[in-house]
Amino acid sequence: MLSQKTIDIVKSTAPVLEVKGTEITSVFYKNMFSAHPELLNIFNHVNQKKGRQQTALANTVYAAAQNIDKLEALLPTVKQIAHKHRSLGIKPEHYPIVGEHLLGAIKEVLGDAATDEIIEAWADAYGVIAGVFIDVEEQMYVEAEQKEAGFRDFKPFVVAKKVKESDVITSFYLKPQDGGEVPNFNPGQYISVRVTIPGQKNTHIRQYSLSSAYNEEYFRISVKKEAEFDPNGIVSTFLHDEVEEGSAIEVSAPAGDFYLNEENTEGKVALISGGVGITPMMSMLETIAAATPKRPAAFIHASKNEGVQAFRSDIDDIMDGLENGSACYILEKPENVSSCHFSGYVTKEILSTYVDSDTECYVCGPAPFMKAVIMTLKEIGLPEDKINFEFFGPAMDLSSVDEKEKVRS
């Protein structure tokens, strides 16, 4: 338990973190990686370069400071982050390292304003917060391990099949190297893929949504090849160009808190995606078709053009098997207007055709796309608890997202 004095000090310094948070976390990551370069095998280098990880951590630290006397309010955020940590292989021994360098960064940035009393209070608070994360993550490790066919850490898998889905997206069917089965997962969850790339000093880990309904034989991920000059493309380019059928890669157990509510078997559902955000929606759609084919379901997908649109024939086939299913394709710049229902961007008029205030909506895609869609769903009258969404990468504040990019191929 934290003393009231510690709570008061932490809460009184929270406004400073709101202003200096990203500066503090930037110094934190720089110093930590300098002292512990081995941690670069875990953290996403691209999110570091783009500043997303620093901002996400700053927001988390600020929220923890604000709620230090009622940490239960942070539990949903803790669980979301813990899913990421478990899929990356974050362990209890990493937390003292993080704490040491986070406190050091606060002292470095704030200077004399960070008195010994303030640093001691933050050290006590960090210990409590770290304990919460460690406990939640251990529960997740145990749950993943105790599932039928489950496992705790990364496990060797083999690429059983490689299928090109569009000009930019390729599916990889992954089977356990030991010949066993794969554990069950919730439709919409992701796995981490860890690869060693020739010429690269560190291993690279990326999360990819599972793009098919559960079956005991394999995981399927469908990966968009990013531009080679884009730092984010180093792993996707390696998977597309170097990984072939028979290649071995390491995979984590499924994780994530963005998934289809399978308990709602009759209520209307809309799966709304932009670009490669289609991947978790395919898992959800296939699950609906197999388990609740009578459920009213709309599949709304936006992409740039026909060439980059994935799974079109698969979606059409699934819709034929649903009693009350409808698909809507929006292409920003169609080569043939007859190949889509609408050209341009997702609009309120389009969404209103498929969504009402009782529809359970799932949204995934580039952040600007999600911001536009979520704002529109709220205008239509959907309550927040009906809108489920997931970011690819660290969580972001939608209010800060630039809407200049509506969809991504």
* CATH homologous superfamily heading of the largest domain: Globins
Instruction: Give Rg in angstroms.
Output: 22 Å
**Distance linking N and C termini:** 49 Å
Give the spatial strand order of the biggest sheet.
Answer: 4-3-6-1-2-5
> What is the CATH architecture annotation of the largest domain?
Orthogonal Bundle
Structural class by secondary-structure content? alpha/beta
Number of helical segments?
A: 11
The helix-strand sequence is HHHHHHEEEEEHEEHEHEEHEHE
Domain FAD-binding FR-type: 152-261
Binding site for NADP(+): 275-280
Protein name: Flavohemoprotein
InterPro entries: Cbr1-like_FAD-bd_dom (IPR008333), FAD-bd_FR_type (IPR017927), Flavoprot_Pyr_Nucl_cyt_Rdtase (IPR001709), FNR_nucleotide-bd (IPR039261), Globin (IPR000971), Globin-like_sf (IPR009050), Globin/Proto (IPR012292), Hmp (IPR023950)
